[in-house]
Amino acid sequence: MDGTMPHLHGLMDRGLTARTRGIEGFFVGSTWPSLYTGTNPARHGVHYLLQITPGTYQQHWCANASFVRRKPFWSALSGAGRRVAVLDVPLTRLEHDLNGVHVVEWGGHDSLYGFHASPPELGEDIRARFGLHPLGPTCDRANRTAADYRAFTETLESGVRLKTSWTRELLARGGWDLFFQVFTEAHCAGHQCWHLHDPAHPAYDSANAGGGNDVMRRVYSRIDAAIGEILGIAGDARVVVFTAHGMSHWYGAQFLLHDILIRLGVFVPPPMRDGGTPRSVVRATLSATLRRLPDWLRERIAKVRRRVAGKRSQIDVPAISLVAEKSLCFPLNNGLAVGGIRLNLIGREPQGTLSSGADADAFCDQLEDDLLEIVDERSGAPLIRRVLRTAQLYEGEYLDQLPDVLVEWNDELPTGSSALLGGAGATVRAHSRKIGVVEGRNDYGRSGEHRPGGWLVAAGPGIEQGRMDGDVSLLDLAPTFARMLGTELDGSDGHPIAELVRAMDPGFQGVHSRQP
């Protein structure tokens, strides 16, 4: 400890700490839905914001459809008469009938619905007195200068201060059974500024990173101060502080997966028409262009997109481009940390080519072998760490809406970006016996990416000081919070954490899904 986060250090000294284990294979888009429902992606139905429409090769924005198909734990608490405050939890829809207050996307990183609050007068008061988060709906921006990073840091710190102010006012009203606030500013700082923190990153620039411009350290310190202010009002309440996942350097070669599957002969894209550019390339170019626009213009575009969000139709979302009758599988959006592949199964896909059962299993075995043979020429190590099969990890009624195969990229080496320090480390070149040589350049501007592990610290009456043995699953948090307040969370894949529940119920024994 170097004194950057004294309030968290103090909590750890008097509380119980543990490492947390994320959602294997889906620790980006599924983390928050899994955490607050206590269920895995095959049961709540969300693995990424853009998902396949079952029975088609079409995609849809799941936030505009049924979205998360399981109730969050705070709904169960509200239904049991508990008074709850749920503030800025990512990837949630506004609930109008909670016994308490709900604030959505005042400062959320993934802005799906825009700022809303229940009751409405709470939102009006926050907007009138504090405004909206100064960062706007997104933190992504390419080609920041040193001055831009300083301004970015100040904006994040200002956002933390404003959020702390209205959070303290709400907390001081008293009478809460559950008070749940999320500081997403840490998320933004890690994604955008890892290269200013980590000297091993290819885009690290000692001149740019100096002068107190370690954005992560400054923002984390500001959040720690906010936690201290909130704890000062909370009194002797039981407190749990946790990270939903970790952060480290951006890694992998998701931008090569499309070409790798083509080289393996298992995915056939549509031919270019009249020497033109494929739609997938056009979409990638448009996306890269959008990321390079000035902040003010990108924010204006984002506002327009939010206004029409509820009116989006399937026409707005591109279909998956493939020659279905010749493809055994195809890439599926699953974020950038872990690639997704969907089998083109007979009877499930409109023009399936692969039979379920033994044929599919044999195909997956061969595909796994072929993917694991690919060598990253930067290091001489495998480009891909593991190939996982979703059906061997999870069970649930929405299993068929998830990727069938998950490609976990090797994260030993950081991957640079064409948008940072002249593109240092942005090119990845890989080879294998079957694919020959593939090469691509990462144009995505983030330098930090999530890892599936996080941590938690809990303190307060009845919570013993120490460290838990093994890792706690994120799926355990929702049933734990519910059980601590005397409510059972039906249908959860997780289990109440006995060490925390016993603070409220000394006789509780329970089980856990902890792993060493």
| Number of helical regions | 16
Top-tier CATH class of the largest domain: Alpha Beta
**Structure summary, number of beta strands:** 19
CATH topology of the largest domain: Alkaline Phosphatase, subunit A
Kindly give the count of domains: 2
Residues in helices, as a percent range: 25-40%
CA-to-CA gap between the ends? 25 Å
Topology:
Layout: H1 6-14, E1 16-21, H2 31-37, H3 41-44, E2 50-52, E3 59-61, H4 73-79, E4 84-87, E5 100-104, E6 116-118, H5 120-130, H6 146-172, E7 178-181, H7 185-193, H8 206-209, H9 215-234, E8 239-242, E9 246-249, H10 257-263, H11 279-291, H12 295-307, E10 329-332, E11 338-343, H13 358-372, E12 375-376, E13 384-389, H14 390-393, E14 405-409, E15 427-432, E16 436-441, E17 448-451, E18 453-459, E19 466-473, H15 477-484, H16 498-501
Parallel strand pairs: 1-19, 4-5, 4-7
Antiparallel strand pairs: 1-18, 2-3, 5-6, 8-18, 9-17, 10-11, 11-14, 12-15, 13-14, 15-16
